[in-house]
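The following block was generated as part of the benchmark described in Methods. Ligand: cytidine-5'-monophosphate.
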Amino acid sequence: MSHSASSESVHVRAPGKINVYLGVGGRHDDGYHALATVFQAVSLYEDVIARPAADFSIVVRGVEDPDSVPLDDRNLAMRAAKLLAAAAEYDGGVALEIRKSVPVAGGMGGGSADAAAALVACDALWGTGFSQARLHELAARLGADVPFALHGGTAVGTGRGDQLNPALARGRFDWVLVTSDEGLSTPVVYATLDALRAEEGALADDPPLSLDVPIPVLQALRSGDPELLAESLANDLQAAAVHERPDLERTLSHGIRAGALQGIVSGSGPTVALLCSGPESAQEVQSALREAGLDPLHVHGPVPGARIIG
Ligand code: C5P
């Protein structure tokens, strides 16, 4: 295949996400659970800079513990770059620099954002010229959350979370995020959910292998009214995340006492997302939680997916 590879670096920014609704069904034979979820991309970003190189390499900036992010093929951005190179029959490499702001193993899709950003950056750097649909197809092979990080905005995810349909969302939603120093493993949280359900005596074909997002969640997003959305926030993984990390329950009630409308564990956790009535309320909640010794961030959504900067 012929390419017009760039000799300049390419800088791509991709957002982290919150699942404003996450319904988890039964487990398929491949180990993945049936999902019905609504993603919202929020203003906490990963920056990926791709520079021309003969081989593949990664450096990561912005993490306190350098061992928390692998720099080899376990890194989803590395896998993304190599997958694109194979699909495009490109025989060069790339030097990737990842500037992290989304918490590592935080339930906000930071690794997925890195992978989506790496796809877009390498596509531009190598002059691959793949369509959005082709990039989406590669993204889905990398992980259930990667297509959404490409797409951004607000979207319904079904299947394993990778079949996306845009959802209409009006206005802006203000969130206060409380991150944790220690991450949670996504597979562990799903396995805990299975164990909790087994304890409750769930039958083999219950929960279902296909499920939908409840209509009131979509209506709340369309209305742009945070009070309505607060009534619909739900996450089937929350009980499992709290089982692993009982302190999350305290963070949730603390946030509500501080004035948030409602709180939810984001994805598989441990990040807690507190929905506020607007920017001023979010600032008040943020100050109250900071005084309590927590590390809150004020973000808003929806924001666009992975895109080239400057
Ligand atoms: O696709 P991703 O790499 O993000 O998934 C990480 C892990 O989360 C999977 O290996 C699986 O254990 C769990 N998972 C799941 N069902 C999904 C998505 C993820 O069980 N729909």
